[in-house]
Amino acid sequence: MEAASRDDEEALALALGRCVLQVQDLERALKSLLAGHHLSLHQGRFQGVDVSGKTLGGLAGLVNSSLLRPMAEEPSKTDQGDRATTTVRFQIALPDGDLDRMRQAFSALVASRNRAVHHLLEDHDLTVPEGRSSAIAALKVLTDQAAALRQEVALWTRDLSRNREELQAMLRDPDIQRQLLGLGDP
User: Lowest CB count within 10 Å: 56, 117, 134, 165, which one?
Assistant: First the structure.
């Protein structure tokens, strides 16, 4: 009986470790993506979004409020009042159904993560095999949710990298440079 208990505990520890690593990998990927999706000119230098110290919930909020937008909606503009600004914003436009699905997926992931972090011991009696099994199952669901979103983030990162490369190529074009800088004939 004791060997089975030890096996359950090892399986639980393994599930918890996999879950933590998968969620942290997703957080790292989101920070990388979000830090460069909106750049603002400040004192002669472009600065990205400060994502240091952001939790999964904060990162999911940035994804939903700033990165993702409905396909039918125009790209967002930043209102800076009466002063001139220069910004570059990369966004992901999704059809309404996909946008709703992604927003719900991020909300569900944050709720599952919070539940696991703050209530794992309350929700699952880890002193009995059934409780350990249910905890392992809950951690597997969370791990799978994070892995699925990580795949989406990888696709977005690839698409935004491609957009950056296209922008770099455009900015090398002398005609585009003249248009941007207001030089020569209109």
Answer: 165
Q: How far apart are CA 153 and CA 183, in angstroms?
A: 39
Q: How many CB atoms lie within 10 A of CB 70?
A: 13
The Cα diameter of the chain in Å comes to 86
Which pTM value belongs to this model?
Answer: 0.81
Scanning the structure block, which residue is given the tokens 């099994």?
133
Residue recorded with tokens 């933590």? 20
Q: Which residue do the tokens 């880890």 mark?
A: 126
**Helices 2-35 + 96-123 axis angle, to 10:** 140
User: E-strand spans in the chain?
Assistant: 38-42, 45-47, 68-70, 87-89, 92-94
Structure token pair of residue 123: 């929700």
- pLDDT for position 111: 95
Q: For 8-37, what is each residue's pLDDT tens digit? A: 899 999 999 999 999 999 999 999 999 888
What single letter denotes the amino acid at residue 109?
A: L
For residue 108, count other CB atoms closer than 10 A to its CB.
14
Between CA 9 and CA 17 the distance in angstroms is 12
What are residue 40's phi and psi, to 5 degrees? Answer: -125, 140
- Residues 171, 177 contacting (CB under 8 angstroms): yes
* CA distance readout (Å), 131 to 50, 116, 121, 138: 40, 14, 9, 11
Q: Do the beta carbons of residue 153 and residue 26 sit within 8 Å? A: yes
